[in-house]
Design brief:
mainly alpha; elongated
Length: 628
């Protein structure tokens, strides 16, 4: 009876566990489907309501749930209030996750610090996310990587770091395109126009906007181009002879943007358009129309820039109309607005800079860190001492290798000279043998002639024959002795020449390696090694590959045969032969160090059936005659 009861209870527990697993998978599937469909709000609400049902879940299931919930929360524009959960999630996936999961976890942790106004930590997490991404893999989540760079661009914008903002927008656009998100790729590309305008580079901003226009219209996204076009109006209004283009842009904006209500009004945040339209009519001499549109900018919660622009525009109109009363009135209003706008600008600038940081949290962290200062100083001292000794060791190692390389070069040069001398002696010995053979033949013929000159006397003939025979024996002995000596010398020279030719091949390989490293593009790369960020342009890659093909044609041919469509493998191999470390190669290719190590292991396994990455260069050196 007790045994039956026990089995019954065990069955109920197993059914409950199976049921819990089914509910978990159903929940995750439904939430993921909602996210894919673009309904992040419902997905987040569904996951948040299931927060109390995590009992019995495995550690993996709990982490997957938290990651998906954070993703839904971020897409639903619900601010993160704490970093405690996502720090645990990021640490978990650092140990157990795929590159895409680590990328997403660190990206969402960065979004958390963004909402907590801790820009430095947010940027650090975004950089960690980039390090996690395996861009050489076909499975890389380029969509999330694009979002990472987009968020970085926004943080750089608030801190007025325009160069970093521009670079981040470009990379966001690049990876959005690789993810197949053409619309977002064009949007990120067009966002750079505002940064270029702030940097007083309106010509570059104009080119970007015109190219964005071409791309938007090419795909039929007229509304998107209309929303993007106001900065181009701003640029054209400051260029002579561009009023027709301004009119064309404004008409298109009014026709295609879909932002105007039935009364022809725009939302408050979009009313700078009326300023551009007022400026257009003002420059066209239609002052009544200009005044009308300047006044349309008015709303209850105007920003300092809108208020300043409205009063300035109205003042210009009344100056041209010579309306003294209105000039006095709007000059005073513009003066007050302009004075206060300076203060507001300073305040806003300070707000943007300080708004990136949460000083209360930083102050608390400073208090906590103060207790560890003594230990930190000790560790810093140890670190500096170790760094100093490491630098000394590195310099000594480099000098020793340099001396060793110079000695090798001198030895190879000496051997090359000895080879030339040995080959010259060899040819001289060959010539001496030919002369010896010719002299021997002549002496034999002379001896024969002596015999033939006999007058027939038997006694005289016998005497001459014996003399000739003795002379022939002596000549033959001398000839054989000389021939043996020359043959022995030739054999010695032949063996020495074979050895020296091997060293000559090494010399040629060394010169070939040095010649490759001395090319312009190779020197450019070697000079840039160690920089925190180095972008190698496509024309540089083409030039480097061309030089490599001329110096190592056999190796390049073998690489192309085995890795037809994997350009990154060939690039890793070229940079390795240049003598670069894995970290430097990863920096140039903008990938993680582990990705470079994996590629080296793959090449070594394919070429030499060895899975280690460390022995790759040694194997290539032996097979293809390389010197680094």
């Amino acid at each position: 009876m007790k045994k039956s009861l026990f089995l019954f209870m065990l069955g109920l527990l197993l059914l409950a566990a199976c049921g819990g697993g089914k509910r978990y998978h159903a929940l995750m599937h439904e939430a993921d489907s909602l996210l894919t469909a673009g309904d992040a709000v419902t997905a987040y609400r569904l996951l948040a309501e299931a927060d109390s049902q995590k009992t019995g879940w495995s550690r993996r299931e709990e982490m997957d749930y938290e990651l998906l919930k954070a993703q839904a929360q971020n897409r639903a524009y619900v601010d993160f209030q704490t970093d405690s959960v996502l720090r645990v999630v990021a640490r978990y996936y650092d140990r157990h996750g795929t590159p895409n999961q680590r990328l997403k976890a660190h990206y969402l942790l960065g979004c958390t610090y963004r909402d907590l106004h801790e820009a430095p930590k947010a940027l650090e997490c975004f950089h960690d996310a980039i390090e996690c991404a395996d861009t050489l893999s076909v499975d890389c989540d380029f969509n999330v990587l694009s979002c990472v760079y987009s968020q970085m661009a926004e943080l750089y914008h608030y801190q007025f770091l325009l160069t970093h903002e521009i670079s981040s927008h470009y990379l966001s656009s690049k990876y959005a395109l690789q993810a197949g998100d053409t619309l977002n790729a064009i949007y990120e590309y067009a966002q750079n126009a505002s940064a270029y305008i702030l940097a007083n580079r309106s010509d570059s901003a104009e080119q970007i906007l015109l190219h964005a226009k071409e791309l938007y219209l090419q795909h039929g996204w007229k509304k998107r181009w209309a929303w993007t076009s106001p900065p181009l109006m701003f640029i054209y209004l400051r260029q002579a002879g561009k009023l027709d283009k301004v009119k064309e842009l404004m008409d298109f904006y009014e026709r295609e943007s879909g932002l105007f209500d039935e009364n022809g009004m725009l939302p408050a945040s979009k009313r700078m358009f009326f300023r551009y339209k007022g400026q257009y009519y003002e420059q066209n001499g239609q002052l009544d129309s200009a005044e009308f549109f300047y006044r349309k900018m008015l709303h209850s919660d105007m920003s300092y820039s809108q208020e300043d622009a409205m009063y300035h525009g109205l003042l210009n109109v009344f100056v041209q109309q010579n309306d003294v009363d209105s000039i006095v009135k709007y000059a005073l209003l513009y003066c007050q607005s302009n004075d206060s706008s300076v203060v507001k600008k300073d305040r806003q600038l300070m707000a943007q800079m300080t708004g990136s940081y949460n000083y209360s949290r930083i102050r608390q962290q400073a208090i906590e860190l103060k207790a560890k200062t003594a230990n930190a100083r000790f560790l810093m001292t140890v670190f500096i001492a170790l760094s100093f000794f490491l630098v000394l060791f590195s310099v000594g190692f480099w000098l020793r290798n340099r001396r060793k390389r110079l000695r090798k070069q001198m030895e190879l040069n000496r051997l090359r000279e000895e080879l030339a001398d040995a080959e010259s002696k060899y040819q001289a010995e060959i010539q001496a043998l030919r002369i010896l053979e010719a002299n021997h033949q002549n002496m034999m013929e002379l001896a024969q002639l002596k015999l033939q000159s006999s007058d027939g006397d038997v006694q005289v003939y016998r005497t001459k024959f014996e003399e000739a025979q003795q002379e022939l024996n002596q000549l033959t002995a001398i000839h054989e002795e000389s021939l043996s000596r020359h043959q022995s010398e030739l054999n010695s020279l032949r063996m020495r020449i074979a050895e020296l030719k091997h060293f000559s091949t090494l010399t040629k390989d060394l010169e070939q390696g040095q010649s490759f490293k001395s090319t312009e593009v190779a020197r450019k790369i070697l000079k840039a090694v160690g920089k925190s960020k180095f972008d190698l342009q496509e024309e540089d890659w083409n030039s480097l590959t061309l030089e490599f093909s001329q110096h190592y044609p056999t190796l390049l041919s073998d690489l192309h045969k085995l890795y037809t469509s994997r350009e990154e493998v060939i690039r890793v191999c070229i940079l390795l032969i240049l003598g670069l470390r894995e970290s430097d190669i990863a920096n140039i290719l903008h990938v993680g160090k582990s990705a470079v190590s994996n590629i080296k292991s793959d090449i070594n396994n394919t070429f030499f059936n060895e899975k280690s990455s460390r022995s790759l260069f040694k194997n290539l050196e032996q097979k293809y005659g390389l010197f680094s």
